[in-house]
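User: Sequence recovery, please. Input:
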């Protein structure tokens, strides 16, 4: 028991002695003293936004990146809005031509074919601008029977019949069936004309004729196509003496 108390007393005395020695040897280090305060460096003068003399572009603009311009993410098309279109074209249209014009010719051809197939349009040929001669006809008959009709579409073709400058039919509207009239011949040379008074609604004046003599004998038949207004189909009819006609046979 004495030994334990001795040990405790020893450590107590040693601890007090050590603290006393440490406190007597320790000296604090005073803070350094400065003679003057450090100078403040003023911030550089920034130009005013309202100053017209301020240089432009000092403040960079912020541009938002466009992910569609990144070719790694998307493939950029050659044909963008506002860019020149491709010059390659299989059509023959001109630069400033109406795009609808290239279809007009085809539509007209298709329409013409459909009308012809349905019997509603005559053949599209150039208009005949000069008179047509059907030659000389020799006969001993005193009169001829003339038959006329419109062999194409009924589109309002009108004709006039004139014998030796006398009007036989003033205004004949050609129909699909034959209309007939007689012309009385004088001895010698007779001139006979069928005159186109107009052009039909679907083309030039078009018709067909047949000629028979007084005995019902067939003399001549033919047709005219696309006559312009005023064009004449001409005939020269030579009336011979009946005896001369028999001798010539």
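Assistant: Recovered sequence (249 residues):
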């Amino acid at each position: 028991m004495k030994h334990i108390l001795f040990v405790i007393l020893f450590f107590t005395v040693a601890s007090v002695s050590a603290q006393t020695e440490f406190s007597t040897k320790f000296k604090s280090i005073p803070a350094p003293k400065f003679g003057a305060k450090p100078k403040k460096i003023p911030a550089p003068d920034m130009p005013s936004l309202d100053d017209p003399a301020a240089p432009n572009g000092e403040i960079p603009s912020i541009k938002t990146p466009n992910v569609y311009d990144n070719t790694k993410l998307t493939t950029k098309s050659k044909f963008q809005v506002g860019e020149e279109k491709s010059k390659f074209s299989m059509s023959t249209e001109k630069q400033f031509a109406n795009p609808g014009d290239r279809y007009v010719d085809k539509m007209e051809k298709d329409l013409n074919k459909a009308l012809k197939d349905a019997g509603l349009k005559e053949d599209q040929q150039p208009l005949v601008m000069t008179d047509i001669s059907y030659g000389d006809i020799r006969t001993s008959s005193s009169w001829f029977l003339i038959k006329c009709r419109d062999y194409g579409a009924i589109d309002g073709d009108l004709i006039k019949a004139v014998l030796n400058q006398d009007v036989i039919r003033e205004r004949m509207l050609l129909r699909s069936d034959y209309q007939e009239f007689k012309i009385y011949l004088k001895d010698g040379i007779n001139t006979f004309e069928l005159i186109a008074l107009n052009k039909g609604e679907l083309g030039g004046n078009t018709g067909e004729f047949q000629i028979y003599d007084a005995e019902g004998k067939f003399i001549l038949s033919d047709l005219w196509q696309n006559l312009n207004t005023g064009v004449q189909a001409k005939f020269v009819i030579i009336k011979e003496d009946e005896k001369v006609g028999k001798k010539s046979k």
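The longest strand covers residues 218-227.
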